[in-house]
Amino acid sequence: MRKEKISYIFVGLALLACLCVSCNKKRKDGRTDTYSSGVISFASDESFSPIIEEEREIFEMMYNQAKVNPIYTNESDAINMLLKGKVCLAITARDFKENERQNLRDRRFNPRSNAIAYDALALIVNNQNNDTCISVKDIANILSGKATKWSDIYPNSKHGDIVVVFDNMKSSTVHFAEDSILGGKPITSPNVYATKKTADVIDYVEKTPNAIGIIGSNWLNDKRDSTNLTFKKNIRVMSVSRIDDATPANSWKPYQYYMYNGNYPLTRTIWALLNDPLRGLPWGFSNFISSPKGQMIIFNAGLLPVQGNITIRDVNVTSD
């Protein structure tokens, strides 16, 4: 009996030692967060900052012991920060590439990715520009340098050279344009420029009659409109067509419904990329965005949620 007691004591001490080692390891890693408490930083493509700010605000109100600090940067740098272990969560417009996923697995990590929303690439022009129907082929010709003047697309246009403005040359909008519009080829037009952030793109287009800005549609919604059927009043949003000859009848704006039914051709997926072995606060925030409340925030912001039922209603419009 005495030997059994001694044996249990040794087992207990061994377990206690293992727990102490585990706790010390966590302290060395600097992680004190849990699923719903603590402080962490995460990276996000800057073009998603409006919707991420709304999600973050509500999350921190619900979990007042949690603080999630966004690092808004370009998509390439956000993913590199995740791969290097500087953050455990990145919000991007693409999933892990297979070599990135395998690299993490080779280092004994278990990366995960969750689709959290559908966004659209929106084309904006100055209020003085009335040419607002454009085809995907026209956009490709502009980005590849085959069309350099507005008259190359619209023969009667007097706006001169086409100037295209992106938020950042390493952003998700540029990657989408190269991958989905140019078929994997780089942008080669001499008239393509980049600012530092999306707000600068909108500001430039407001002041430049011959410019096209390419931004995420989550920047467009007028906060005064609860129906998400209007866009910011100080710019025009172009309608985009899959058909080479774009007309008002076959072109669509990035409204939620046209993203939902597939009419709008420049729709993309927003992803939450995770590499968090502790399944702490990065997991908690990511799962909140995917929850019914988080998805409703996405819907109210004018984007298309991945989860949840969407009801389509016919609306009768009358004019005075």
Short description:
This protein has 320 residues and is of the alpha/beta class.
What does this entry look like structurally?
36% of the residues lie in helices and 20% in strands. The protein has 320 residues and is an alpha/beta fold. Strand 6, helix 7 (172-181) and strand 7 form a beta-alpha-beta unit. Helix 10 crosses helix 11 (292-300). The protein is elongated.
Features:
320 residues, alpha/beta, ten-stranded mixed beta sheet, two-stranded parallel sheet, 12 strands, disordered N terminus
Summed up, the helix count is 11
Helical coverage, percent range: 25-40%
Radius of gyration over all CA atoms, rounded: 24 Å
Largest sheet, strands/sense/barrel? 10 strands, mixed
Structural category: alpha/beta
**What is the average per-residue confidence, as pLDDT, rounded to a whole number?**
88
Order of helices and strands: HEHEHEHEEHHEHEHEEEHEHHE
The stretches of 5 or more residues where confidence is low (pLDDT under 50) are: 1-27, 314-320
Beta strand %: 15-25%
For the record, give the distance between the C-alpha atoms at the N and C termini, rounded to a whole number: 95 Å
Number of strands: 12
Q: State the shape.
A: elongated
